[in-house]
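Handout, page 2. Input:
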Amino acid sequence: MINLKKEKNPMPEQDPIVRAGNFEEVAGGYTAEMAINEAMRCLKCRKKPCTKGCPVMVRIPEFVAKVAEGDFEEAYQIISGTNALPRICGRVCPQENQCEGFCVQGAHGEPVAIGRLERFVSDWHAAQEEEAAQAALDSIEKDDESLESLLDSDMVISNGRKVAVVGAGPAGLTCAGDLSAKGYEVTVFESLHKPGGVLAYGIPEFRLPKDIVAAEVSKLEKRGVKFVNNAVIGKSETVDELLEDGFEAVFVGTGAGLPSFMNIPGENLLGVCSANEYLTRINLMKGYLPEYDTPVQQAKRIAVVGGGNVAMDAARCAKRMGAEKVYIVYRRSMDEIPARAEEIHHAIEEGIDFQLLKNPVAVVGDENGYVTGLECVEMELGEPDASGRRRPVAKEGSNFVLDVDCVIMAIGTKLNKLILETTENLEANDRGGIGTDTGAATNRKGIFAGGDAVTGAATVILAMGAGKTAAASIDEYLGE
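Output:
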């Protein structure tokens, strides 16, 4: 049976006024009834166009059909067959531009809520798994040998081959997961004090609860993956030294974490920071809690420069940190803004003020070096540029100053060149990232790379796709 309803089943959410004052997850997730009803909207297309938009090749129509039948466990098994991080993808993937963007139902109304269904299925499975584990623990004595057997139940028999993964972000976690499932002994080296990469430091708690990231890491650990934190490969040890240490292959998934600035007057004033620093202090270092040693400036009026998902995250965090007024300053119109529609919708609901067709030209400060304002100029859209979007052009004499005491730059990130600079004869690509072929292999034998370290800043799911490709190539390489 097909449900011909044109709109998606709405997602339960916290009230905007309430949620703007806390870091709890905004979306509540579908109930079983909602999920089944939504899955029944699938038209069961013969050519399955939605699968074209998935970088990790989830068999979408098959799992949606199982949800419609109420067989949630089988739906999970289908998803997890190709997606190592479904609870994360269901929350942060830009589905509107990927799987849902190809959904035929979208031609008649709204596409099937594939992301919400993926989230429901993976959350449901996690809840069942937790209940079963607790029941098993309750039924045995702590000194019983069966306890050790239970804890080791996810271990895969080792094939004796050792692989190093550099970076514990979405690309690295996916690569590690796929390789460990094949029996490889994988060690993941992470520069920060917790695994997760951008999942841990970049995406706020209200979009992606950190206990979910920790649970995904724990799954890999139970399978035998080792994590070495506070290890800056290229400083503490080089990629070449990893190979000398007995690792037969190395995957580099270090991301693109260097912040970008506009190089305008006043950017060195106190109260200007990058979105990278601001979000890391909040998400990873818990700077919003008074008992932690990495406090965040308690600004009252904040301007966030940029229009992507990172800008939305920073602005919405600023609101939750107690700012009375938060601006998004973006040089194009709402039609060109690159952030997810859902994030823009949530930001507007939470009272974020969008200053569209405005561009900063200087940060204004007082005699003590603190930010007092952001000087902007009004823009108008001209002819399309290389990106295909209409190029913003400044209006002469339209300068004005926004009254702010903090400016957060969220205009993108740059590639960190540390691995390229410390790995002998490793070639770069024309973007300045690590050069690879279509199988993630670099010019150096045994060294593979993928994700933002290769392409520059992109999405979580594209990084995961790169990690999956690399794992397959490493398996083929070591099997020769």
